[in-house]
Amino acid sequence: MREPAVAGRFYTGSETELSKQVSNYLNKAFIESLPGKPVAIISPHAGYQYSGAVAAYGYNAIKDYEYKRVIVLAPSHYSRYRGASILDVEYYKTPLGLIKVDVGICNNLINNPPYFATFKKAHAREHSLETQLPFLQMVLGDFELIPVLVGRLNNEEFNFLAEKIKPFIDEDTLIVVSSDFTHYGYGYSYVPFKKDVEANIRKLDYGAFERILALDFEGFMRYKQATGITACGFMPVALLMKLLPDDVQGKILQYDTSGSLMGDFSSSVSYVSIIFTKNSKSSEAIDHNFGLDNNERLTLLKVARDTLESYVKERKLPDINSGKYELTRIMKEKRGVFVTLNKNGNLRGCIGHILPKVQLFTAVMENTISSSTKDTRFRPVTEDELSEIGIDISVLSPIKKVSGADKFIPGEHGIIIRLGGMGAVFLPQVATEQGWDREETLCHLCNKAGLPAYAWKDENMKFFVFTAEVFHEKKVLVAN
């Protein structure tokens, strides 16, 4: 039996209090509808007072599904070794009771040296795997555990571990990857910036999330090399990308930082809940259902217009809580969104978030400001131009990886390409506005990415598509 090592420190050691603590987090975690059954989650592993609220989002999302086994992939904080370590025990214990280990599968994996082994010291004090267990006990009840501590891996070792684990993944199996993300501050020997720390940490984290959601293993590895991002579960997350099929859909459920919670960004650790689901529909299907009604569109356009006018004139934001705006549930959801400014029929600025970073109304405000002042293709918008500028808003669906360029439908899909660290995006309306067919759109997109026009034919090119609900100031029905 593996006894709990951090009960009473990372979470309460009392069965009654722990049950209450986890239930409280779960009850506060609002989950939007999912497109299919969850197959994997990425969950943080700090003390529950820091990361428990974020972790609850992933676990709340799986509570209505049944799984016979759970594979937990977690990093080792205290030991350095190559490959993966599985402890030779029959049970893991928490204050909530015993969890049975799937000894048959674990023994099968351990019998693949040198990349699978048992390093007992690695498990003695480790919290990254243990902190996931009370949440699993509360939402799943009875299941069997396959607990894996992942060490350092090279490409050959990633492929070997994935090849050996994949046969044990089926519709009754959930994968949980334990990882915190950016560890910022002198205490972590990671201070890549000293100004706008909160915004830059978010930007750094979301750069990693974008590659994770796209299952872009090579891009994720390059991102680590380029940024040095201090994600302690980097290896388990990268291994997950080797395990998941291309037809899963990833989604960020919740994000926070200890810096935000404590009001001090001199030292900060980032936490995220990400879920991957397998859609019962065709693997190439894209979600077109956004659910915004006409009044919600009008409100978002009003938020954008008021933000543009107020910021350009006074460098102020409108008071979103003044009662002037009716903020519905959908408008408070996190969505990817672009704001486009046009002047006399010509582009005057366009900036947005592909990934859902903040609540929709906040994203509209932020991107209105960015489009009017930070689009480097144009000078900042001036007050005397305001009456000539029209606003378009594009609310995006989740991005979806597709098997090839032939799956991209110009005019219906937005398109993202990635090759060798280069990438670019077009919104769905670009092809229609320019009168381009599929090949022309892809050639222009390659040029935008700094690639040769026909690089889209490269066998290593990756394609991602999305749809967008696009609405304009003068093309929305007037509210009654």
Automatic annotation (TrEMBL):
Residues 295-480 form the AMMECR1 domain. InterPro entries: AMMECR1, AMMECR1_dom_sf, AMMECR1_domain, AMMECR1_N, AmmeMemoSam_A, MEMO1_fam. SUPFAM superfamilies: AMMECR1-like. Belongs to the MEMO1 family. This is MEMO1 family protein SCARUB_02724.
